[in-house]
Amino acid sequence: MEELDYLANERKSAKFDVEAMKIVWAGSQQSFEISDRMSRIVASDPAFRKDNRTMLPRKELFKNTLRKAAHAWKRIIELRLSEAEAAKLRFFVDEPAFTDLHWGMFVPAIKGQGSQEQQDKWLPLAYRMQIIGCYAQTELGHGSNVQGLETTATFDSETDEFVLHSPTLTSSKWWPGGLGKVSTHAVVYARLLINGKDYGVNGFIVQLRSLDDHLPLPGITVGDIGMKFGSGAYNTMDNGVLQFDHVRIPRTQMLMRVSQVTREGKYVQSDVPRQLVYGTMVYVRQTIVADASCALSRAVCIATRYSAVRRQFGSQDGGPETQVIDYKTQQSRLFPLLATAFAYRFVGEWLSWLYTDVTQRLQANDFSTLPEAHACTAGLKSLTTSTTADAIEECRKLCGGHGYLSSSGLPELFAVYIPACTYEGDNTVLLLQVARFLMKTVSQLGSNKKPVGTTAYMGRIEHLMQCQCNAQRAEDWLKPSVVIEAFEARAARMSVACAKNISKMPSPEAGFAELSPDLAEAAIAHCQLIVVSKFIEKLQQDIAGKGVKEQLEVLCSIYALSLLHKHQGDFLSTGSITPKQASLANDQLRSLYAQARPNAVALVDSFNYTDHFLGSVLGRYDGNVYPKLYEEAWKDPLNDTVVPDGYHEYIRPLLKNQLRTARL
Amino acid sequence: MEELDYLANERKSAKFDVEAMKIVWAGSQQSFEISDRMSRIVASDPAFRKDNRTMLPRKELFKNTLRKAAHAWKRIIELRLSEAEAAKLRFFVDEPAFTDLHWGMFVPAIKGQGSQEQQDKWLPLAYRMQIIGCYAQTELGHGSNVQGLETTATFDSETDEFVLHSPTLTSSKWWPGGLGKVSTHAVVYARLLINGKDYGVNGFIVQLRSLDDHLPLPGITVGDIGMKFGSGAYNTMDNGVLQFDHVRIPRTQMLMRVSQVTREGKYVQSDVPRQLVYGTMVYVRQTIVADASCALSRAVCIATRYSAVRRQFGSQDGGPETQVIDYKTQQSRLFPLLATAFAYRFVGEWLSWLYTDVTQRLQANDFSTLPEAHACTAGLKSLTTSTTADAIEECRKLCGGHGYLSSSGLPELFAVYIPACTYEGDNTVLLLQVARFLMKTVSQLGSNKKPVGTTAYMGRIEHLMQCQCNAQRAEDWLKPSVVIEAFEARAARMSVACAKNISKMPSPEAGFAELSPDLAEAAIAHCQLIVVSKFIEKLQQDIAGKGVKEQLEVLCSIYALSLLHKHQGDFLSTGSITPKQASLANDQLRSLYAQARPNAVALVDSFNYTDHFLGSVLGRYDGNVYPKLYEEAWKDPLNDTVVPDGYHEYIRPLLKNQLRTARL
């Protein structure tokens, strides 16, 4: 069964070893093998089909997800998969489900915030899925401001219980995934009240539904919050609403690792450092950055392959038209996104190292790098998710009209991705956290406290405030030192300018509020510098495989110079480069696009995505787009009959001018 | 039945006459009254309900649209509505349907391209909807490049017929709305072949379905192309696929206004100027610009009202938290979009004048302004639709997590709007058309041919190449002359730079291709200048109503200065302004935001949208958001039962560790 490869010529033109690049992308041989194996297991199992997803009405869609989740769990048991393998398998099933919250939030919350006793009791149940849990924090009226949560947990010393209650409509838990229809338990965040005193927000393990018949327990109102963006996307998830009417739980179900309530109703803090919370945040956000590179690379893979298949205009003497990927306008929009996918992959890798580093330091009671690591991950979460969301939509546009079809996979990829800009910290709020850290760093310059980690460059502030970029020819922009200095100067000068402007305001707080749009821009400049730096650092390592490093160097330059072009205003207004240098960078960028062009399809092949995972007719590995688009079309329920349902009631009377008497 | 208005304080703080602003927004008293009346007719008729739209599976969704279209037609007849009123009524029904193509493309195509005889025959049938028509141009393999269409219409002189045929899979008509399931007829574009000679693409009226039983006629394969972006959105439309297997139509069904085929098979050109086609394009694109201001204002209305309702952080002494609209980061993202809605409204108004002007000139055989008008509308179509698509998504993000719910209305608004970036000319292709016109204009500078209309500023090229912006204080940026000159200098210098760089290339064509990304940027600069100019011109007219003009002046400045900030790089790299001046403009912008703040809710009220049309719980006029969100949630089909369908098959066995033996 020889299969035609319509992209064979594209693959032949590649100037590097694709198999070696696959290892680089995956991070290691082992990581490649796990991903490869898990993705094939999912792709080859008809139970995991997803091509009909956008056609299912909500109830069927949801039931179908329950089926897949159960099937995945069954396979995980049968194949005796390790925790890492199981996580990968779930990842390739590629459908938001209650299990995401169970494994990704409920279990970690108990692990991180539960006492040893609590862990011993609850984790085995959760690991075997004898209970299913979710994470109920956000409320209808309260998202980013966790301290504003209204749900109460009042200690009743007579019965040794907490009474959970939703005092207002806006205190209804709202959004938690897995809550609406599935979870038997939840970690619920509520204000702890003891004898009328408010001890702030704490976590509680609460059973929501009977383990016998799945009915909500007395005092609990729970349901789904309704349809969300997209036709499939997060509609496979039962994001839920939850209200408590004086629901009682044993005192032992408050998560007690960091603070406890005693039998007598005394609130006690343990000696476990509260900073642990930040360590968890670093962990979660680090995974979000990794997910960003994954979602982005997926969109780029689809757009790149289809840009090589699609032809439009430019036919010479009746020959074929020009491949869309050969147009400079297409390249100038697509290749920076391809480069960004790699950039985010590597910064994600580095962040996972950073998390390990922070964890080890925490264990040694060294908190010195935590604020910087926290700011850095917050910023990178914001930057990478915002960019990725926009990039997916840009990839859809790059696929022209057909990108609008569900069968292109891009609408669903967009709809399912964008919540990442909001969850685990709204992206604007996060940028302002970074900015606050930058302002603090600037204010401490000249003191004994030296900036560390990703803010270390601020230590050379005097140089960065007055240095002049020495790019004189387009090729100078290929030098890492030239690029880094320009990005450092831009970021440092924007931060310093903000600090100066704040100092002119009546108060630092008022100034910070007034100048927050500028501060957000300074934070972005800082975060982009981090990504550029980490990409460059990656290239200073040994990288195996013919031509692999050379390709990555091209991509690194494309990433940096396309950012420089896009944010020219920052670089010029801070005097970090001259208009002439900006123009040289742009010239260099054009010739980099020409270098990337013959390698583009092979570069997206190195993501090693199966057609199942891509879920896109336009992005098919074999490039056989048109016959498959045509085939897909006929599967729509509307095509079940030639004459549509409704013809006799609504079309015929209209054509026959019999509407006046018709009952509609 | 007194209703609470949660936004009453916001409305009280407005410093202008909202009723007068409504007239300005509508364009005239008459236009306001028609819109107002039609929108109320639709809103008050339960048959036009749309709140359940995202929950319907495709077939029901489509049938529901057929019902609404028939009901709308019935009401139009019963109420004896004028053509303008009928169009408005359909607009407020707010659901893509086959009627859009019938009225918007099929009828105009026959009017514009049909001979008098053809018009006399077909138009009465179409006007009474005794036939339903669509517009079949795009093919599976061919979109932007109309000259590349593959469908053939071969003249058979023996039978005096054309034989329509789809020679390849890629020649299948693909995308036409109304084609898939409803239309009885289509205007089909095909290559005209006579005696083996190719006379290029022409239009033909083709019957597709029997008027008796709605079955496709022999030789015709027709169906729906499947699900598209969003859950409702364009899934109410039967975008279709169509293949011809040697389908015969009478010779008289070629549209013969501009060229004819005689009984003998001679191809004859009439003396009707071919430029008429461009006139039609100006018309269609002008309506697209008007639609952009409508979609954008709708999104802005939702985001503005919700930003005033939503509170987060900043609670003092247990008081209410800060309204989100009071944050500068929110203002700096939202208010430019509010200003853009007005800017696009006014440039749309001007374009409709331009169309009238062009039409009158065409009738007097004056083609002199046509190329400029054509370039200008192409550019404004591209600019306004791209900006609006991004702006809707930005408004969704400005609504935080709840913007992701379908009940916010924003996901559907986005999904239904974005095709505007692709249809009637892909936005990138259009920008390059503008750029080509600009390069031609630059090349003719100094010749006798003076630039006209929106390129007239190029006539002052010498001044614009060397002028220096004289803004010295922030307030100087409020002067229209300062703003206009900066925008003119930027646009002119970017065009001239492109022309210079092209001249260094081996050939103009190669240069144009190589520099197309820069050319697209120059085209955007030119188009933004047009919008800014037309806004400023609008303000030079008399505008009635207390405070109305003052508000518009604030919005005009916000529009211009936010663009200037966003595209700082252009202004600085061309030396049109200095970094210091850019910073002053930004300072001015901040104080303009403060001026706009108390008027924001009243400004969006002046769009006069009903809650039905907005279709958004977050954007409700009365601001009563939370109880309604809660109410909406329970309507989801998933909440029909407390225990979800699938519990017994998939959740219970999992919880009970009985999966091994379960059949999934």
UniProtKB/TrEMBL annotation, chains A, B:
Residues 278-439 form the Acyl-CoA oxidase C-alpha1 domain. It is found in: Peroxisome. Its cofactor is FAD. Pfam families: ACOX, ACOX_C_alpha1, Acyl-CoA_dh_M, Acyl-CoA_ox_N. FAD binds at T138, G177. Its main location: other. GO terms for molecular function: acyl-CoA oxidase activity; FAD binding; fatty acid binding. It comes from the Eukaryota. Residues 480-656 form the Acyl-CoA oxidase C-terminal domain. Gene3D superfamilies: Acyl-CoA dehydrogenase/oxidase, N-terminal domain (1.10.540.10), Butyryl-CoA Dehydrogenase, subunit A, domain 2 (2.40.110.10), Butyryl-CoA Dehydrogenase, subunit A, domain 3 (1.20.140.10). Residues 134-245 form the Acyl-CoA oxidase/dehydrogenase middle domain. Residues 17-132 form the Acyl-coenzyme A oxidase N-terminal domain. GO terms for biological process: fatty acid beta-oxidation using acyl-CoA oxidase; lipid homeostasis; long-chain fatty acid metabolic process. The active site is at E424. GO terms for cellular component: peroxisome. Keywords: FAD, Fatty acid metabolism, Flavoprotein, Lipid metabolism, Oxidoreductase, Peroxisome. Belongs to the acyl-CoA oxidase family. PANTHER family: ELECTRON TRANSPORT OXIDOREDUCTASE, PEROXISOMAL ACYL-COENZYME A OXIDASE 1. This is Acyl-coenzyme A oxidase. It comes from Papaver somniferum (Opium poppy). The lineage of its organism: Eukaryota, Viridiplantae, Streptophyta, Embryophyta, Tracheophyta.
